[in-house]
Amino acid sequence: MSPGNHLPSGWVTFMFTDIEGSTRLAQLLGPEYRPVLREHRRLLRHTLAGTDGAELLTEGDSFFIAFSDAGAALTACLTAQRALATHDWPAPDAAPRVRMGLHTGWAEPCDGEYASPEVHRAARVAAAAHGGQVLCSGSTARYAAPLPAGASLIDLGLHRLRGFDDRERLFQLVAPGLELQFPRPRTADAVAHNLPSQVTSFVGRKPERAELRRLVERHRLVTVLGAGGAGKTRLAVELATGMVEDHPDGVWFVDIAAVTDPGLVAFAVAAVLGLRPEPGRPMVDTLVEYAASRRMLILLDTCDAQPSASAELISRLLAGGGGTRVLATSRESFGLPGEVVWRIPPLSVEPRPDGAESDAVAMLLDRTMAARGGRQPAPAEAADLRRVVQRLDGLPLAIELAAARLRVLSVGQLAERLDDVLGTLDAGRDDLGPPPPEHGWTGNQQDTVDLVAASRGKAPPTPAVRAMRRSAGERHLTMQATVTWSYRTLGPRSARLLRWLAVFAGPVDLSTVEWLLDDDPLDPLSVLVDKSMIQAEPHAAGGTYRMLDPIRAYAARRLVQAGEERAARDRHLAWLAHALRRAHLGSDGRPVTLSLYALDPLAGELRAALRWCATGGSARAGLRLAGGLDQWWRERGLAREGRLWLFRLYGRMAETGEVVPEDELAAAYHMHSLHAGADGEFTEELRYSQRAEAAARQAGDAGLLARVLAGRAGPLIDMGQFAEAERVCREVIDWAHERDVVPDALLAVFSLAELLWRRGALAEAAELLGAARPVEAARPAYRGRRSVDMLLGMVALARRDLVAAHEHLLVALRSRMTHGFHRRACDTLNAIAVRCAAGGDPLTAARLFGAAEAIRASMRSTPGICGPYWLEQQAGLRRTLGDAAFDDAYGEGGELGLAEAAALALAVEHPDLGADSTRFRSTGPVGPRQLGSRTGPPPDGPPGTRLTRAARPPTAGDIS
């Protein structure tokens, strides 16, 4: 080394070095520190001896050296770092980590020293380095050519050095034998955050952001919980970006997903904060000491990768000082004192109150435009966009993946393919390479942790560990990878419960889960809720548990792979059959009036069960299930869907050769005939009615045959063969009387009454209906329809007895709405419209006609035998009001929902009772004006008086 009195002048390269963490090292080694310090000095002087460097100052663990040649200075640093790294130190913890900084500037020595700002700049460059690192300024990089063999310089960008107003471009020396990865340089302009920059816009979640911000401002630990792909990271980063100015010491993002050893969690956080290990001191202690006096927010992402280690670190950080806050994302909570758990909801799939699209649709629109080169979806695709986001349960990752599929599919095609959620969303992504780091650590930061771990005596990561790390980075490339990330953490019981719950189409309650497993599910269910794989939804009557569709699709695949699908789905079938039976029974186990509202919640489960029956299960079981919702299909406007399921089940029978008893076939064919009639397929209606008759005769069940034959009039009426239909009805009724199965022929009674009403035989129709009332009241499946009151109301309208018509029709409408018979309620709305027109209220009549027809059209339901009558009445009403007034009122009615239209009809005032009202007449022979009388002899009186009692408004006993 050149003597100190031969100092270079002109373009001088200044070199500063010191030992990082020297104070901690001295405390650790005690008396042994001095030999280490001497050995460190000896190595530096030995390696610098062959250079032209002039040693100006050696103080403690620091060197200050001046070089006339920048290249020689870099060579000296490289040689010195290699010598330090390969030296045999007394112990690994005793190895000094030396940081070195170089700067080249114009300087002249004076009295054996330099009085130049360039010296201070060089000192600041060295202060920005980390132990084992060599940094140099831009001017040194410019004058250093040629570099040492195998060496290169990495541009670390512009930095503001402490005490200097301008920015200095810093470079790092890279060469074999030197560490490669370090935290960011310790400079004055170190950014106050390392939050990842997003390449896509953040859509929606305004209420969620506001709520989460309030929690973070009030609490020191907030954990955002949610299923994989729910958008936890994106929301947390978006929130933290807006809080940088609130935390003077920064907002720091750490992705725990890539940490494959619990012992490295503290090192991961330290690497982000720019901290290096101190000799003989646990990294967590260094972190706690650093954080204690600072006001900062640490965003720990994907903590479920290392839940225990993350919890321990968070606990230590929060206990160490009051200025540090932690915002964590995870699929399960930590259970720490003071932790506030906030579950992220899926994106809203419902339109906003102002009429704008939901957040989920807005996000899909945004991503679809990007996928299609900026082209917006056509307005005609709006309905399919809503279908897609509803099918995906508003899960952000699923929406992102769905948008990518729209490069090759229309929105309608995508919506049709989402029965296979995973297959559709993950298509074409099996052979993707590792993703670019969208958020979290860079590769440099990860290697830093590996090197730090190695310096602490930990083995380098194995290929398997590195593969796991890659999978952590790729977990959001596909839905399957996302859910697998959580599934692999489940125990056997929890994993089995998740698989078996996949057979359900919607939310389930605790008793249903118990039925499914035939075991106490509380423990595994709690695990699934804690890990955000099942969503718990509390209600006043008890909680329910729901699985998002993408997770359900994954669990269903696992169910098949485990060989458990048949057992689980057969168990689901048994539960559904039990639920259908319970819908017909009261709390005491006795039959009650059927309410179709009790069947509505089972619709999704029914479809899932029927799909299984038609593809892999029992067709016979499927026919029974479909029959359990016989009236529901038609009353909900789903007759066509019901027919399609039956066709699929017939195909399954042919495929498997499964034998179905004739009585069950007859019931299915009869139901099919009724569905076809409601759907306007009259030829199919007659064909299946004939098949039902043939099967019923083979079964030899008189009651079953009566039910089937009673439906034969339906296709004849639909095809306009009224005389033949009347003949068939009379024969069936007589045949049922002979075999004492009259209740089973009730449908024939109602059909005959309609036919009699149509041809004006009102007295006979009224007498027939009077006799049918007790039969209807005794059948729980029929009495909620109030067909007797509906038809008696029609008879009363034909007689222009508005009092009787009003009372019968309102009773029928109220019962039909109460018990969910919506298609039949439309008939009653039409009838009440006729009553309003006859009673001098044409505007209400027109509104009710408009409502009834719009609702019927939405149900794809045929008007039946009354269709021509409704049209005739509407034509007369149009003549009364005039085209414009009628059309306006009719259009207003068309905007009403069924409940609104029913409320309008039920609010119609009772007709004024004049002196000649039938209400005040004494009991006697039944005449045209007596249909509405409430008085009369008991039901066992002569035939001529039975109608008067039968025509009375019902009592509570009739509908119990």
Task: Walk me through what this model shows.
With 960 residues, this protein is α/β, with parallel strands linked by helices. Among the domains are: 10-174, Alpha-Beta Plaits (2-Layer Sandwich); 359-425, no CATH class; 564-660, no CATH class; 762-959, no CATH class. It contains 43 helices and 17 strands. The strands form 4 sheets. The protein has a 7-stranded mixed beta sheet with strand order 2-3-1-4-7-9-8, sandwiched between helices. A 5-stranded parallel beta sheet has the order 11-12-13-10-14, sandwiched between helices. The protein has a 3-stranded antiparallel beta sheet with strand order 15-17-16. Helix 8 packs across helix 16 (443-455) and helix 28 (662-678) packs parallel to helix 30. The longest helix has 18 residues, at 565-582. The termini are far apart. Residues 428-475 and 919-960 have low confidence and may be disordered. Keywords: ATP-binding, Nucleotide-binding. One of its GO terms (molecular function) is ATP binding.
Output the structural class.
alpha/beta
Specify the number of helices: 43
Please tell me what the overall shape is: elongated
- Widest sheet: strand order? 2-3-1-4-7-9-8
Percent in strands = 5-15%
pLDDT < 50 stretches = 428-475, 919-960
Q: How many beta-strand segments?
A: 17
CA gyration radius, whole angstroms:
41 Å
Average of the residue pLDDT scores:
81
Largest sheet: 7 strands, mixed
Q: How much helicity do the residues have?
A: 40-55%
